Structure formats: structure tokens, C-alpha cells
Amino acid sequence: MALDPAVKNLIDTLNEQGLKSFEQMSIAEVRGVVESFSDLQAPNADVARVVDTVYPGPGGDQAVRLYIPESETPLPIVVYIHGGGWVAGSLDVTEQPCRALAADAKVIVAALSYRLAPEHKFPAAPEDAFAALNWVVEHAADFGGDGTRVAVMGDSAGGNLAAVTALRARDTGAPALRAQVLIYPVIDGTARFPSREENAEGYLVTTAAIDWFWEQYLATPEDAENPYASPAKAADLAGLPSTLLLLNEYEVTRDEGVDYGRRLADQGVPVQVELYEGLVHAVYWMTGAIPRSAELHGAVVEFLGKQFSD
């Protein structure tokens, strides 16, 4: 399918402005560009409460922001992990999508921060994410949550961390998860699928940029074989929670997501894979600029409704 017209218009505009590819930027520039995605978002939805607090991580306290819709009963919880190549991203740039998810899915969204690379390389980020999940479940009742109905969710590098967190929860036997939502996850540090060549340039995030993000994140090249860095390297995927995988046509990482979905299904995990033609990486954060980002949001809301229905 042809590139979505709104996506093409955005890419053309960014090219006219001279935006460099991420691997050509400094760390500070990458972080600034990622934060600027908030300029592409729709107005914030209303929720009953927003609570800023901290969870105790292995490297010290980290911020977590709770988006709580109106409810008289304990609500399901979605632990959301932001993307940004493990290098960038924040609670502020994901404020709008987190508010929308809390309001529309009637869930508490616990958005967590974590230590970023290259200052803090693997395994800092997944250690923080797993600590945050455990803290959220332990304290669920304190903010009106139901600790028996919990999902992990993330986009891009956050999708990687969500998948890793689900693996760790399975491997350690707790906490129990109802679901994982992986939005265009970057999950294989040694991937060599056709989409790396087909979509190498011209679609916001290049193959060179993906490789550069992995280089910032991993402490050694050998870490790419570790399932807690590259969840696609896990030989055994059985016992993982019901999974929603949202992938885009013009993605460097599209095919590794397709392959992960196939392997989950082959090992008995209930999995729903949605491939959006004409779309590119990062559209989940572009709710104001790319109207079809609503399709991804709607799929997440519908999926979570089914997983949390009892």
C-alpha cells in the first residue's frame, strides 16, 4: 500500500526542515527530537486523577505517573513503558497517549520512567521495568487498582521492555499478567529480516538508526543474544500472557515482530497480530498529526477490554 498521505506530508515537512537521522545526532539532540513528538499529539483527555510518585529501582528511586479514571470499583492496571530507543523518552512526551488509554479503556495506566542509555546500559532498563511492575502490583490497592488484572505495554524500545518484563514475570513465577501489548517492538538485536532492507531509509527511523540505538543500549555485543535484551532470543515462549502485536508496513522492525508473533502462536500463546498498511514507526505518539494513529489506540482499547472483562 502507498504511504499514508498524512505520514507522507509529515515526512516531507521534516525533510524540508533538514531533520537528521537519529544516528547522526548527539544524545542530547535525540532526546530533544523525541520530546518534540508531544507537538504532534491531540489535546489531553481528562482523567479523574494523575498521581506522580516513585518506585524503588535497583539504581534508586524512579518516577512513575498514575493516570486514574473515575471508578467506584478497583480497576485493571496497564504498566506502560515508553519508547525512545532506550536513550530518550519521558513521562511528559507520553502524557497524551497515557491519558487517552486510561480514559477510553477505563484502566489505571502506570507509566514508568527508567534509567536511560548510554549512561546506563543493559541491564539497567529491564531491571527497572521489572521492579516497577512488582511495585505497581504490590501497591495496587493504594490507588484503586486490581492487582490481579495487570498488563504490560510498550512501544518501540518500550515494547522490547514490555516483552522482557513479561518474560521475567513468567520465569520468576510472579507477578501474574493478563496480557502484553507490544506496539512495533524492537525485539531482536541481531535481526536480519527483509524489512531491514526494504524500509532502510525514508520512513522516520532508519536501519542505521535502529543499529545505533542498539549500540547505545547494549554493554557488549554479546548482550544481543540475551533474551532479557532481545526477547526474540528466548527459546521458550510458552506460558506468556495473551499478546497484542501492532506492526506497521513501513517499519525496519516489522518482520521481527511478525516472526515473534508466529513463534508465540506456535508455542500456544494466544496472540493477535495487526499489520497497518501505509504507516511508519512512532505513529502511536502522533495522535494529532496522523489520524490513523486512532486505529492503533482503538485496537489496544478493544483488546484490553476483552482481557480484563472478568
TrEMBL record:
PANTHER family for this protein: AB HYDROLASE SUPERFAMILY PROTEIN C4A8.06C, ALPHA_BETA HYDROLASE FOLD-3 DOMAIN-CONTAINING PROTEIN-RELATED
Keywords, ordered alphabetically: Hydrolase
Protein name: Putative esterase
Family named by the database record: Belongs to the 'GDXG' lipolytic enzyme family.
Residue span(s) of domain Alpha/beta hydrolase fold-3: 78-283
GO molecular function, one term: hydrolase activity
The organism of origin for this protein: Rhodococcus wratislaviensis NBRC 100605
A Pfam short name: Abhydrolase_3
Superkingdom of origin: Bacteria
Keyword Disulfide bond assigned: no
Lineage: Bacteria, Bacillati, Actinomycetota, Actinomycetes, Mycobacteriales
InterPro entries in alphabetical order: AB_hydrolase_3 (IPR013094), AB_hydrolase_fold (IPR029058), Carboxylesterase_B_AS (IPR019826), GDXG_lipolytic_enzyme (IPR050300)
